[in-house]
Amino acid sequence: MANLYSEFLQEILSETSELRALLVSKDWDAIHSVIHNIKGLSANFRITDIRAAAEGAQKALATRNYTDIESSLHHLFVITEGASKEIAQYFNQRDLAV
Protein backbone atom coordinates (compact mmCIF):
# COMPACT_ATOMS: atom_id res chain seq x y z
CA MET A 1 0.00 0.00 0.00
CA ALA A 2 2.89 2.36 0.69
CA ASN A 3 3.91 2.05 -2.96
CA LEU A 4 0.49 3.21 -4.12
CA TYR A 5 0.58 6.22 -1.84
CA SER A 6 4.12 6.96 -2.93
CA GLU A 7 2.88 7.12 -6.52
CA PHE A 8 -0.02 9.29 -5.39
CA LEU A 9 2.35 11.74 -3.68
CA GLN A 10 4.58 11.94 -6.73
CA GLU A 11 1.61 12.50 -9.03
CA ILE A 12 -0.13 15.06 -6.84
CA LEU A 13 3.09 17.04 -6.38
CA SER A 14 3.68 16.97 -10.13
CA GLU A 15 0.13 18.13 -10.82
CA THR A 16 0.28 20.99 -8.30
CA SER A 17 3.65 22.07 -9.66
CA GLU A 18 2.19 22.17 -13.16
CA LEU A 19 -0.84 24.03 -11.84
CA ARG A 20 1.37 26.72 -10.30
CA ALA A 21 3.14 27.25 -13.62
CA LEU A 22 -0.16 27.40 -15.50
CA LEU A 23 -1.51 29.95 -13.06
CA VAL A 24 1.36 32.28 -13.96
CA SER A 25 0.54 31.95 -17.66
CA LYS A 26 -3.22 32.04 -16.94
CA ASP A 27 -3.88 29.11 -19.27
CA TRP A 28 -7.41 28.53 -18.00
CA ASP A 29 -8.17 25.51 -20.19
CA ALA A 30 -5.03 23.71 -19.07
CA ILE A 31 -5.72 24.73 -15.47
CA HIS A 32 -9.17 23.16 -15.76
CA SER A 33 -7.64 19.93 -17.05
CA VAL A 34 -5.09 19.72 -14.22
CA ILE A 35 -7.73 20.48 -11.58
CA HIS A 36 -9.84 17.70 -13.07
CA ASN A 37 -6.87 15.32 -12.79
CA ILE A 38 -6.26 16.29 -9.17
CA LYS A 39 -9.93 15.84 -8.33
CA GLY A 40 -9.99 12.37 -9.90
CA LEU A 41 -6.71 11.31 -8.37
CA SER A 42 -7.76 12.38 -4.90
CA ALA A 43 -11.18 10.75 -5.31
CA ASN A 44 -9.54 7.44 -6.25
CA PHE A 45 -7.57 7.52 -3.00
CA ARG A 46 -10.55 8.88 -1.05
CA ILE A 47 -8.64 11.93 0.08
CA THR A 48 -11.72 14.03 0.50
CA ASP A 49 -10.13 17.30 1.56
CA ILE A 50 -8.08 17.54 -1.64
CA ARG A 51 -11.08 16.45 -3.70
CA ALA A 52 -13.28 19.12 -2.11
CA ALA A 53 -10.64 21.82 -2.65
CA ALA A 54 -10.26 20.76 -6.30
CA GLU A 55 -14.02 20.85 -6.74
CA GLY A 56 -14.10 24.35 -5.25
CA ALA A 57 -11.40 25.43 -7.69
CA GLN A 58 -13.40 23.96 -10.57
CA LYS A 59 -16.48 25.91 -9.51
CA ALA A 60 -14.47 29.13 -9.23
CA LEU A 61 -12.99 28.51 -12.66
CA ALA A 62 -16.47 28.10 -14.12
CA THR A 63 -17.39 31.61 -12.97
CA ARG A 64 -14.28 33.14 -14.60
CA ASN A 65 -13.90 35.32 -11.51
CA TYR A 66 -10.12 35.37 -11.51
CA THR A 67 -9.80 36.60 -7.94
CA ASP A 68 -11.89 33.65 -6.75
CA ILE A 69 -9.92 31.28 -8.96
CA GLU A 70 -6.58 32.36 -7.52
CA SER A 71 -7.95 32.15 -3.98
CA SER A 72 -9.38 28.68 -4.63
CA LEU A 73 -6.13 27.48 -6.16
CA HIS A 74 -4.15 28.82 -3.21
CA HIS A 75 -6.50 26.89 -0.91
CA LEU A 76 -5.96 23.77 -3.03
CA PHE A 77 -2.18 24.18 -2.74
CA VAL A 78 -2.37 24.52 1.05
CA ILE A 79 -4.67 21.52 1.43
CA THR A 80 -2.55 19.40 -0.92
CA GLU A 81 0.68 20.23 0.89
CA GLY A 82 -0.86 19.44 4.26
CA ALA A 83 -2.37 16.16 3.12
CA SER A 84 0.89 15.11 1.46
CA LYS A 85 2.79 15.74 4.69
CA GLU A 86 0.22 13.79 6.71
CA ILE A 87 0.38 10.82 4.34
CA ALA A 88 4.18 10.78 4.39
CA GLN A 89 4.20 11.07 8.17
CA TYR A 90 1.72 8.21 8.53
CA PHE A 91 3.92 5.83 6.56
CA ASN A 92 7.17 7.09 8.09
CA GLN A 93 5.83 6.39 11.58
CA ARG A 94 5.32 2.80 10.48
CA ASP A 95 8.82 2.60 8.99
CA LEU A 96 7.42 2.37 5.48
CA ALA A 97 9.04 4.42 2.77
CA VAL A 98 6.85 6.60 0.58
From TrEMBL:
One of its GO terms (biological process) is phosphorelay signal transduction system. The keyword DNA repair does not apply. The keyword Phosphoprotein applies. The modification Phosphohistidine is found at H36. SUPFAM superfamilies: Histidine-containing phosphotransfer domain, HPT domain (SSF47226). Keywords: Phosphoprotein. InterPro entries: HPT_dom_sf, Sig_transdc_His_kin_Hpt_dom. Residues 1-90 form the HPt domain. This is HPt (Histidine-containing phosphotransfer) domain-containing protein. It comes from Anaerosolibacter carboniphilus.
